[in-house]
Amino acid sequence: MRGTRRRAPGGERGLAPHWRALLLGGAGLALAGSMVVGTLTAGPGTPREPTPGTGTTEATRASLDEETPTRVRERCGVEDGENGGDGEGFDPAESLTPSREGGPAVDAIRERGSLIVGIDQNSYRWGYRLPESGDIVGFDIDLARAIAEDLLGPDPDIVFRAIPTDQREEALEDGTVDMVVRSMSITCERLDEVAFSTSYFETGQQLLVPRDSTITDFDESMAGQRVCSASGSTASRWLERESHGAVLLERPNHLDCLVLIQLGLAEALMTDSALAAGHMGQDPSMRLVGPQLTSESYGVAMALGKDDLVRWVNAVLDDYRGDGPDSPWHRSFEEWLSGYLPDTANDPPEPLYRD
Amino acid sequence: MTQPPTAPPASPPVLPAPRAEGAAGSPALRAAPPGLPRRRGALRENAGRLRAALRTEPGQLRLIGAVLTGLLLLFGAVTFGQLAERAESARTARESSQPLSRDAASIYRSLADANTTAASGFLAGADEPSEVRNRYIRNISLASELLVSAAERGRGSPQSAALIARLNAELPRYTGLVETARANDRQGLPLGSAYLRYADERMQGTLLTSASDLHRLETARYRADLADARSWPWLSTGLGVASLLALGWAQRRHYLRTNRVLNRGLVAATTAAAVLLLWLVGAQAMARSSLNEADAGAGRALTTLNDAWTEALLARGAENLTLVSRGGDSTFEDDYLTSMDRLLADPDRLAEGLLPRAYALTGEAGREPVGEAIRAANEWRERHDEARESELAGDYDDAITRVIGGEGSTGESFDRVNSELSAAVAVQQERFLNAAQSGLNWLGGLPPAAVGLALLAAAGTVRGVGLRLAEYR
Out of the domains of life, which is the source (chain B) (predicted)? Predict the structure, then answer.
């Protein structure tokens, strides 16, 4: 008779990205350090300075050496250790200018008559399955439908394909899916493997704790507490770099961390505030504490080289974000996310273009 | 009879002289040197008298009679002891330790089945059929009942007791997690599936490991019992051979001294001793072959079948959890493939699969259900591939129907594998019990017979030697 077969909690999975985590950590430190040289306007004591709408070159600078780290935004094309001051490199959220001209990628989808979208079925309020009806719904799903309607006309044929986090890039590369709309942050590293649309949501890493927690911020109040994060996530890298004396736990999925907290096996979890909204939706006794540590943008991911599709999606996003509070973006936000996120997240981000 | 012929009632005549000499160095004797020569003289005198008595024929006859009777009684007593011990081991194996091992396997299976069923019920959500729910409840109750009885019966071993205590403590935690998963899922929260994954992790990591350890422990114990029952009783065999040789020598001596061929008493004793020795050798040989069949035949088939059954349950659990995790995790599909591979193996190295191996190990009578199980498992594998295709194509609902639906689903194939293996295990269990019983039958009659025959042989010796002694009066 055979005994266990599955990995120990947070076992091997946490080891592989170790080197990557260290490298990224080093890069982030260098970046943050250089930023603080450039600007000292945002002092150490300043509360977080959320910059909805812009969140780009003017994004907050801070140093990890400071007591309260404020939002750090990644910049691409800056070498490790290089003094990448203001304006060096480029923002990862920059994409191609919108156009509905079309091309081979768009034609292929139209010929097929259906759009295959990689999604998450487990992310409450973003992409999840209603058990009664079996329908997949959420903020990401609304956007995927809007794109499909624009490409294929009303009542389009959409195939939703659930893909694990670590297979998103691969699924695009081998053509299993046309695009991934799955709360995917645009990062410099991912830009090497996939193409992103413009940003459709701004978020950042934050701590989520139960109502009665003694943790007040990403600081010494975490000492001795068990803090959970998803293996290989940005959150886990931050925690590894700066644990503030916390005991770190890693689980395959950020939702597994919520289970641990509810069972009293962890005191806090770290993820981005957008996914945290889903957690608070499932457990109203959870709350966000402290500032957002990073500034990240969600984008629709497509395979590298499908520029016509990227431009088309950017055009859809332009309309989707709209101008006023009555845009599809706002309506979807009202339906799925309003009330779970800080007020600063109430508006769509401004698109950035690199050409 | 055993008292030496010419011994004076005072000091024991068998006490050898060197012992008295050795004692001379002790402080007590050194404190009283005057007494020493006198005492040594008495011992020497007694030994001398004994030697003198042994030089006469009646003295020698008395000694021979005493030795022969002692040897025969010892032969009987040792045979009784050794064979009773072996019969007891065989009885323990058949009636107590093997059933404990079987129960431990049942505990494992009901836990694994509960885990699998919980996942099936979860996938069905609000449409969970009542038979799925009932099957889950039945499995959990069966596991708790078996744990209670195992705790009672396995009290002797602290290792088993620790494992059973752990299982008892973990089981309610597990069921709590499953109910939380169910409640969250009914609310439409993906958290439910995270709870079910966590419950599965507890099941795999704690409950099933402990149950598997318990099974291994109990299996090792009953196999040790069978090995004890099979071990050859060398001491009684040796004593039997020695008794026969001694009797033979005594009769030859009798023949040489008297020219009379037969001494009825000694002949009767020889016959009784020979019967006992033959019985001992024959019964032990037959019992060994039966117990070998129980251990290596039915026992090995049972172990392999249990392993296969376990693997089928694990494969089914992984298959269900692939869908529960809703594409969020591909490790479950890998687990399914691993388990299926263990169960059936690839076509080119078919013999390595647990089911084909079990097929080879089961006797003619028990072969049919195993063959059926292999067919059903192959069908399951094909159906799973189709279901997996649907899932990958994004048709989640179709995948669910193909996995937990009725006719044509992988669930149907799995249920068939499950019931065929259950039948196959029952056949092998029967085969085991029969073989162990036949071993027990061979061993069981011998101990009382050993006592009777040894007493008969001893009485014969006494009678035979007594008749010869009477001629000197």
Answer: Bacteria
